[in-house]
Write a structure and sequence with these properties.
The chain is of the alpha+beta class. The protein is 59% helix and 11% strand. The protein has a domain of 152 residues: Up-down Bundle (Butyryl-CoA Dehydrogenase, subunit A, domain 3), CATH 1.20.140.150. It contains 5 helices and 5 strands. It has a 5-stranded antiparallel β-sheet. The radius of gyration is 29 Å and the shape is elongated.
């Protein structure tokens, strides 16, 4: 029962991780810079994402431009696009597989099949967390290196946006969920290996016949 509740808790974490992963992939605020002029009306917030660049004015106007050309983008943005999409796909597969393998569901067949499904789903979550953590770290490193570069003017320097933090948190949720699912199956198999089931040895028919008295001796 405790293992089933732990798997349910991991499944909730994985759901938050999947939704956060998708949101981080689509949000346009991976980079944010604020250029505030002498008047509050001229305040502008520029945001750059993986798929579009957006500009928000203090007057309430909001405009976005899609990034159509892939080859013109920097390498870290191209890598972030592919890895974040792959992370979303793997996490979605993990949700489907663990739904079948969880102990609180009636799907998946016998216990061994459900354990294998949970283990496979946990591996998908771990890989999704890694694929989601790598681009966020790489993207943050590029932002920090550009921010510390003295040759770049202050007006062009940017800071990490909310999508980066969402990606970090989502990757952490997916990694924790994957470790919980894999460890729950591993503990069960390890316990079965340390404490093997007792084998009941029943006497064979030959032993029973030898244990009894032979009637030939009395004829």
């Amino acid at each position: 029962m405790a293992s089933a509740s732990l798997q349910f808790f991991a499944f909730i974490l994985a759901l938050f991780g999947v939704f956060g992963d998708i949101a981080a992939t689509l949000l346009p605020n991976w980079k944010v810079n604020a250029d505030v002029g002498s008047n509050i009306i001229t305040a502008i917030t520029q945001m750059q994402g993986l798929w579009m660049d957006c500009t928000w004015y203090s007057t309430g106007m909001f405009s976005c431009t899609l990034k159509y050309s892939i080859l013109s983008l920097p390498v870290y943005i191209q890598a972030a696009r592919s890895t974040m999409v792959l992370s979303c796909i793997l996490s979605a597969f993990g949700i489907c597989i663990t739904t079948v393998g969880m102990k609180c569901t009636r799907l998946g067949g016998d216990t061994d099949s459900k354990n294998n499904a949970c283990f496979a789903g946990g591996i998908c979550f771990i890989l999704a967390g890694i694929f989601g953590l790598v681009p966020t770290c790489w993207y943050t490193r590029e932002i920090i290196s550009n921010f510390l570069d003295q040759t770049i003017p202050e007006s062009s320097k940017q800071e990490p946006g909310g999508a980066v933090y969402t990606g970090f948190i989502s990757a952490g949720f997916l990694l924790i969920a994957g470790v919980i699912f894999c460890s729950s199956c591993f503990k069960r198999e390890q316990g079965a290996w340390i404490y093997p089931p007792k084998q009941h040895h029943f006497p064979s028919a030959e032993q029973e016949s030898n244990a009894g008295y032979s009637l030939k001796d009395y004829v």
